[in-house]
Design goal:
about 160 residues, mainly alpha
Length: about 160
């Protein structure tokens, strides 16, 4: 058990005790909703972790190091931005996947760029953004957003790695 798991387990236990002490059945309803979330999310997690396992085993370390490694420079950061934009899924998919690439030789800057790009520019988000916010908003956000992932990765490389 790592620190994050211990902290989350403590929060969950505290909330369970608080809900139980209320005496209104909140603890049962909370547990039922938690179980529904597990049932919905578990298949996604299993598939995501299978993909991560195969990425770990099948991604050639030399190829990852060449294209996304610490010495890939600006080319690696720009590629990482593109990869991050097109990565599907939520954090349970993205973080283990980028972690696998990082362990297989992707540089710190490229990894930071991928995560930042996914968070700011995920292509899937445009399908939600356009109907609610409109073309102008999306264009401005994307125009500004294209700069920041590469900038974040470059800063990470300069201060904590090689660029």
């Amino acid at each position: 058990m790592n620190t994050a798991t211990a902290i989350l387990a403590t929060w969950a236990g505290g909330l369970l005790i608080y809900a139980w002490r209320r005496g209104d059945g909140s603890h049962r309803r909370g547990t039922q909703q938690a179980w529904q979330t597990v049932r919905r999310t578990l298949p996604l997690l299993i598939v995501a972790f299978i993909i991560v396992g195969y990425v770990n085993v099948l991604s050639p370390q030399s190829l990852v190091q060449t294209w996304l490694g610490p010495n890939s420079g600006w080319r690696g950061l720009l590629l990482a931005e593109g990869v991050g934009m097109f990565m599907p899924g939520g954090p349970y998919v993205i973080f283990p996947l980028i972690s696998a690439l990082y362990r297989n030789g992707a540089g710190l800057g490229s990894s930071v760029t991928m995560i930042t790009s996914w968070a700011m520019l995920a292509v899937i988000s445009v399908t939600f953004e356009l109907p609610f916010m409109g073309w102008r908003f999306a264009a401005v956000r994307w125009g500004l957003g294209l700069v920041f992932p590469v900038l974040a990765g470059a800063i990470a490389q300069v201060f904590f790695g090689n660029l």
